[in-house]
Input
Amino acid sequence: MILDRFRLDGRVAVVTGANRGIGQAFAVALAQAGADVAMLGRTEPAATTEAVEKAGRRALWLPGDIATVDHDGAIGRVVSEFGRVDVLVNNAGIIRRAPAADTTAADWREVIGVDLDAVFHLSQAAGRVMLRQGRGSIVNVASMLSFQGGIRVPAYAAAKHGVVGLTKALANEWAGLGVNVNAIAPGYIATDNTAALRADESRNAAILERIPAGRWGSPDDLAGTVVFLASDAARYLHGTVIPVDGGWLAR
Ligand code: NAP
Output
């Protein structure tokens, strides 16, 4: 039955940055759909763990900074604890706001390191396991700035454009081997990542005016899409980016 294809019973998902924001909503949604969830991040995801367990699933925190962690080691720990890796959601990300002329080399490297380099290294580590299994789904988190340049966020725009290129490149290699690689491009979602924008009255008004849905998104608005992309219902989707943006890109 079609709704059964959206279920993730018996699957094992890895979500980065699941202690708050969008990653938390992803982890809880995947658990509610049936998956056990390993969470790779710097901060213990206590509330998310509670929600995953409340959904009747197992939760595991893998402590680590995604830029510097041993990526194969982290994925190997998931395999040794849960036996397999079916889903990787590359969610954790950072943003640094400054005019391009003033962006420091350190900020540039940090953003590229977390938002792009780590996405590749984790996808490679999880992808090797999925290729051995002959099955798996990788869901990358892109952005409106995968399509647009944004304002005063040059490293973030470059990294998020890169995430889309990487999504397509991996999909081209792995689609025929049972591994789906796709991305979600969230619109403007109310999290800590966008707190500065919402605090700026004129930017906030300009953003709201441009969103056809007329409101900021919530992390929960993305939950259905991540479950879909992680599931068999999306088995013929490869290398695609799904905007969940209240209509932003339609303007
Ligand atoms: P957020 O509320 O700022 O949360 C970011 C998460 O990433 C936190 O869990 C954070 O962990 C984790 N993280 C950051 N750097 C990390 C590192 N080096 N190692 C491990 N974990 C790290 O952000 P969000 O809004 O939920 O964003 C999640 C993703 O969606 C990001 O990729 C972001 O670019 C993307 N996105 C967001 C929006 C939006 O409007 N909010 C729009 C488009 C795309 P700590 O709590 O330990 O810092």
Remarks:
- The mean pLDDT is 98.
- Residues 16-17, 19-23, 41-43, 65-67, 91-94, 114, 141, 143, 186, 188-189, 191-194 surround NAP (CB under 6 Å).
- Helices lie at 21-32, 46-54, 71-82, 105-133, 154-174, 195-199, 201-210, 223-230.
- The chain has one domain: 2-243.
